[in-house]
Amino acid sequence: MAIAKAERLMNLALCLLGARRPLTKRELRASIEAYLEVGGGPGRAGSEDAFNRMFERDKDDLRELGMVIETVENLDGEIAYQARRDSNRLPPITLDAEEAAALTLAAKVWQQARLAGAASGALQKLRAAGMPLADADEGDPYGGHSALEPRIPVHEAAFEPLMLACRDRRPVTFAYRKSNAARSETRHVEPWTLECWRGHWYLAGFDRDRGAERVFRLSRITGPVRSRAGAYTAEVPDHVTVRETVERWAGEIATATARIRLRQGAGYPLRARAVEVRDAGDGWDELEIPYGHGLDAWLVEFGPDVVVLEPAELRADVIDRLRAVAKG
Fold it and tell me: Is 203 exposed, middle or buried (0-12, 13-18, 19+ CB in 10 A)?
């Protein structure tokens, strides 16, 4: 669906830019195949209304993307549209060495994601304009800026539809299985943003059923993500607030400390966060680590190499999660 809309917007933009005179809606519909198929085609009941709604949305989307579309009246008194090239030409792009290196690095980050094609295409356009940018598999033309080459792995099928829903501000529904639940349940969410934390992707948004903000781990979304019509009912907070929400629900923001036993030679990420480490004997260490929301889910990932000593509620949460996993 997203691909079809992008193709339709591109065709509309090309028609408006390529025409030598303003075009009416009737002429645009005759020139763009996707518009001909709306509502079963011209002459069908409801066809014109469906086309008009789609055309108005597409026109607004192009304007929101920055395209200048003028509305004029042609010689026959009909409303027509045009996008003059001189009004839609970008100014010359100039980047210093650090800015160009940052763009190259950003493109490398997305190599494993569905954005890889868009990132590569953007770099190609900048190189064609004279920017000395490196390819993903080439060296750094600025010397030293690409010493680190991060990657953001995106394996979840839910990533792309949720990314588009966040961008377009569209409510979604999906089946979600909590780590301590035996089965999935349907969630109705107004998506805000996607965040990557400790190699896992999270969606932050407003859960309509619970009437509050929630964070969902993408790997726990089962089945397809479906878009829903309608506007958001809750205000979208600024990015900083959303980032803090993701970190808090994922366990980044600690509110207390916990004491655990960790098998020696295991759990290095836990050791890196430990406030204190003591030898407990018999091949075990005792660690004091920051304790925040989500720590129970993280500890479960280490299986039999971790034993929670205190607090009691954390120990109970970990046991509940392990039992849920055992039940499948």
Answer: buried
Tokens of 148: 């680190």
pLDDT digits (tens, 9 = 90+) for 253-263: 667 889 999 99
- Peptide linkage before 92 cis (omega within 30 of 0): no
**Radius of gyration from C-alpha coordinates of the chain:** 26
Token pair in block for residue 83: 């996008």
pLDDT digits (tens, 9 = 90+) for 62-90: 988 888 999 998 888 899 999 988 888 76
123: tokens are: 């770099």
Residue 108's nearest CA partner among 145, 142, 143 is 145
Distance CA 226, CA 188 (A): 10
104 phi and psi angles, rounded to 5 deg:
-60, -45
Q: How confident is the model at residue 144 (pLDDT cuts 50, 70, 90)?
A: very low
Query: Under a CB-based contact definition with an 8 Å cutoff, are residues 57 and 51 in contact?
Result: no
Residues 6+ apart with CB under 8 A from 20: none
pLDDT at 143: 42
Q: Which of 295, 294, 293 is nearest to 308 (CA)?
A: 295
pLDDT, the chain, mean = 80
User: For residue 131, with 0-12 CB atoms within 10 Å meaning exposed, 13-18 middle and 19 or more buried, which class applies?
Assistant: middle
Q: What are phi and psi of 174, to 5 degrees?
A: -160, 160
**What are the structure tokens assigned to 176, written together?**
């979600």
Q: Which residues contact 16 (CB under 8 A, 6 or more apart)?
A: 23, 28, 62, 67, 69, 81, 82, 83
- Tokens 């889910």 locate to 297
